[in-house]
Specification:
Length: 300
Amino acid sequence: MYDIIIIGAGPAGLTSAIYAARGGKSVLVLEANMAGGQIVNTPMIENYPGIFEIKGFEYTMNLVKQATDKGAVIKYETVTKMDVSDSEKIVYTNAGEYKSNAIIVATGLKRRKLEIEGEEEYSGKGVSYCATCDGAFYRNKDVAVIGGGNTALEDALFLSEYCNKVYIIHRRDTFRGEKEYADRIKNKDNISLVLNSEPVKITGEDTVTAIEVNNKETDESVILEVSGVFIAVGQIPSNGIFDKVLDLDEQGYINAGEDCYTDKAGVFVAGDCRKKKIRQLATAVGDGAVAALAAMEYLL
């Protein structure tokens, strides 16, 4: 029996754990994969107030240590469902069940797939969703990055340090990502832009050897010979298991305001899985603090 169970060990969840544990509450954090969420794979964090720069992995480990030093317990188990019908709530995992008086959902986001031919077949064989995880395997090779947001631009810049050539394939003629990243890309000789274009098919033998791209303006297709395809076309919330329990919007985000209260008493939400306009590290951490304080007020 815990005072508060937190589902997800990203920046939002771990911040909630720090605040709740400091407040004298017994805290259990449940995480299906690796602590840190998406930020753990970020090469360098440069926009967090008060920290000039820090590697994503280092930042994550600091959060984990801070939370556990305060007394929070972290268990790496997959949450399968939860029962919040009574004041005593139950969270079920692949390893057992846990009870608490309050729950904070901080499940974050997962990478969106292209849903094109060859993507599933070559996943792990040249198709990747994490440039910082797999980029070093493509040293001196040609690769493609799909997307036009911050993640895609960051991935391209990161890969340009390892790879012979990096293609950025984007369906529009301008990027959605920050101007600073776009400007840095312009100064990279080994990054080529393939704009107004969409990927059609990924091909290969044992591993990826090429990607077919269609130009939306000319309706012509070209084959780019690459050894790797890095997909960064957005994210979707990891809230599927809560669709019958909590109120979700049409995109799958949990409906909650800035106070982080959900429609169920004693259940709160923090971070990128919440319906909100801005999803940044700073806003995730802010949610984590708000949700923890709200949960502790609820317990009173």
